Amino acid sequence: MQKLTHAELLEKRLSEEELSTSKRFPVRVILDDVRSLYNVGSIFRTCDAYRVEHLYLCGFTPAPPRAEIAKTALGADRTVPWTAIAKIEDAISVCREAGHQIYTLEIAHGSLSIHDVSSQNMPITIILGNELVGVREQAIHLSDGILEIPMYGTKHSLNVAVSAGIVLDAVVSAYLRSR
Fold this sequence. Notes:
Oligomer: single chain
CATH topology: Alpha/beta knot
Strand order of the largest sheet: 3-2-1-6-4-7-5
Number of strands: 7
Structural class: alpha/beta
CATH class: Alpha Beta
Number of helices: 8
């Protein structure tokens, strides 16, 4: 085995133009009061990697153009369709009107493990919350369900950008298995 060279990676990568005309997965992400610009940039990059349909930046979640977002997004702020919407309820309504089921990523009673997501949950919108307090209760009440990342150690939370990567991998994998 040998690691791919930079030139080989570039050959495999879609151009921004090719990506703009490519089919995206039926997955959307809503950020609810995520405060760190670096986390937002990282989530943009992860949404690009998983070809997410749309990213919604709600509440006080910072939006491009910002140098700190650009630093971790590495251009994904140009390739991921996104909208800043002040009220999370409005973003949820837009996604629901598009036929999406709404799931909040949170630790809660009656949650569904991300490993149990299936095509039955698609198309899906995932809400990710603030680094300290999580997702607002009103958003949880507007959700169709709660997704949870199983935790096996002593800690019961992960960085929001890390969580985004884990949940998007599980959801896109579930979608691909159903095809």
